[in-house]
Sequence to fold (670 residues):
Amino acid sequence: MGSGTVDFLLGAAVIALPQYQIPVLLGTASISILRSIRRRRCKHRKSLPDPSNAAVTDGVSTRQHVDLRFTDVRCSITNKTGVTKTILQNIGGEAKPGRLLAIMGPSGGGKTSLLNALAGQVPSTKGMELQGNITVNGAPQTDSNHRQAYVQQEDLFYSQLTVRETLNMAAALRLPKHMLAEEKEAAVADLIQRLGLVQSADTPVGDAKKRGLSGGEKKRLSIGSELLGSPMLLFLDEPTTGLDSFQAEKVMQTLKDLANEGKTVVCSIHQPRSSIFSMFDDLLLLSEGQIVYSGPAKGVISHFESLGYPIPANYNPAEFIADLISIDSSAATAEEASRERVEKLKAAFKQKAASAPSGGAKDSVVSAPVASAKSSDDASPCSWPQQAKLLFKRSWRQISRDKATNVARAMSNVSSAIIFGGIFWRMGRSQTSIQDRMGLMQVGAINAAMSSLIKTLNVFPKERVLVQRERAKGSYATAPYFAAKLAAESPIGAIFPLLFAAIVYPSAGLHPKLSRFARFCGILTLESFTATSLGLAVGSFAPSTDAALAIGPGIMVLFIVFGGYYVNAGNVPRALRWIPSVSLIKHAFEGLCDNEFPGLDFEPVSADGAGDILKGEQVLNRLGFKDSSVAKTARAQARVLAFNYWLTYCILKAKKPAFQRMDPVPGRTI
Ligand SMILES: Nc1ncnc2c1ncn2[C@@H]1O[C@H](COP(=O)(O)OP(=O)(O)OP(=O)(O)O)[C@@H](O)[C@H]1O
Fold:
C-alpha cells in the first residue's frame, strides 16, 4: 500500500472518529476497573436489596402518592389565516392515587390533547395556546415534586435487542448512579416478572423483517421501560390501540395492577370492550374538547340514565357511551340531532358539577405550573463515556445481529459486482477500453454511494424518533450517542464496498498493482461512509422515512450529474462550481481515475497512433483532473464526510423535542 493510501485512510479514520472517542476509550477502561471493584464488593454482601425499592431516585421520594388535580385546561390553535380552533375547553378533574382514570371520547374529541396537556407533552406548535392550572398533592406541578412517565402510543425499540437487554439498557442509562449493576439487573428481573414477560424475556423485540414480540408484549415492554424511572404517576396514550382483545385486556390488567400498587394511572382510550371498561376506577368523557362526564366509572351509567338515556340491556357500556357522545355526520338531520344531544349532555354535566359540593380543601394556585418534559443533555446519571460505552453496545448489537439487512446488503453488492465484472470483463488496453474504464469508475462510485445512502435513509429517520424520545427523558446526550453509533456501525459498513471492490477489480482487469487495488478499496469505502453521512444528515431533518427516501436520492442525482463523468470539470458553470466540490460521487470518481490511469499505456488503433490516447495521464487531462491526486480527492471526500457528520450532530441536538408551556389561569383555585 502506497504512502498516499495510508495518508488518506488515516485522514478518514481521524475524521470518522470524532474527538470525544478518546475520552470515551479512556473512560471505558476506567469504568471497567471500577465495575470489577464494585462487583467484588457486592459478592461479599449477603443478599441484594429488594428490587422494588431499587428505583429510589434522586431528590424525590418515589413512594409518595400523587394526587393530580387540574382546572381550566384550555387549548386552542390559531392558523396562518387567523382562524382559531378550540381543542380543549375548561377541562377540570382529578386523577387519584391507586386509581385508574380513563379519558374516553370519540375520535377528535381531545383525549390525546388532554393527556398531553396533563403530562406536559403537548408538542410546541406555532399559534398554540395552552392554559390551565395543575397541582400535584396541592402544590403547583413541577418536574421536581413528583415522578411521572408517559407511554406513547407507538412502541419504538431497537429491534434486535431482547426484552431483558432493552430493559437493562434503560436501567443502566436511567437508574441512579448509586445503584450497583446487580441491583439494576434485579430491578429489571422484578419488572419482567411483574409485567408477565418472563416467557419472552430473551426474545428479540423484532420488526417487519423478523418476527419478535407480540403487540401486547411490546406495549408491556414500553410500560416497563417507563416504570424504571419509578414514577408514581403514569400517563398512557391509547395503550390498547392496534391490539387484539386478549392482548388489550392483558395490557389493561397490567395498568390496573399498577394502580392497585398505589400509582396514579391516567390513560386515553377509544372504545374498550366491557371487561376493560369494568377495570376503570374513574372516567373523564370528552366530546369536541368539552367534558360530558367526569367521575367514578361506575356512576356513568346512572348519570346518563338520570338524563333520560338508559343503557339497553346486555350492551357494552363503552359502546353505548361512544354512540351517545359522538356527533353523527352521516346526514344533516342526524348531525343536528346528535349535536343537540351532546350539547345537552355537556350542559347537564356542567350544571351538576357546579352544584356539587367541593370535595376537600381547596388549594390556591399561586404560581404557574410549567408543563415540560425533562429534556436535558445532562440529566442522565451516567457520564458521557459511560453513556457512549452503553450506546456502543446497543448499536453494535443492533447492526451485527440484523442478519436480514446485512445479508441483503452483501447480496446486493456481490450481485452488482458480478454484473459489472461481467459487463467490463478483462477490459484490456484498447482505445475503447478507456471509455469502459471511465464507465466502470462511475458506476462503481454510484453503486457504493447509493447502497449506503438508501440503507441509512430507510433506518435512520425511525431511529431518530426513538433517540429523540430517549433524549427527552434525559437518558443520554447527543454526542455520546452519535459517537457510539458511528464507531459501532463503521466496521460493518466497510464490509460491503470492500466485497464489491474485491470482486469487480480483478474481473474487470483494472491496474495490476496491489497498491492500486488497496487504494481502489479505500476510495470506495470512504465514499460509502460519506454517502452514509449524507443519509444521516437527510434522515436527521426529514419528517419521515418516505420524505427522506424522496430527498436523499434527489441530492444524489445532482451529485451524479456533476460527478465528473457527464459534465467535464472544466465546463461546469461558475455559479454551480460548488456542486462538484461537495459531490461525493465526483470525489470518488476522480480518485478512482487518479488511481487507475497513471502509468497505463493504451494500444493505438493505427501504427502511427495519431489522435489516439496512448497514456493514462492523457485521459486525466481530458477529464479535467490534471492537477488531481488520490490523496487530494480523499481529503476533499473526508471534508464532505466531516461536514455531514457535523450537520447531523447539530440537527439532532437542535431537534430536541420542545413542549408547549402551560400558562396559568390567574386567581383560580383547585
Ligand atoms: N397541533 C394541532 N394543530 C391543529 N389541530 C390539532 C392539533 N392538535 C390537535 N388538533 C385537533 O384537536 C382535535 C383533538 O385532537 P386529539 O388528537 O386530542 O383527539 P383524540 O380524541 O385523541 O382523537 P383520536 O382518538 O382520533 O386520536 C382534533 O380535531 C385535532 O385535529
The two ends are 76 Å apart (CA to CA). Residues 311 and 503 are 74 Å apart (CA to CA). Residues 155-230 form one domain.
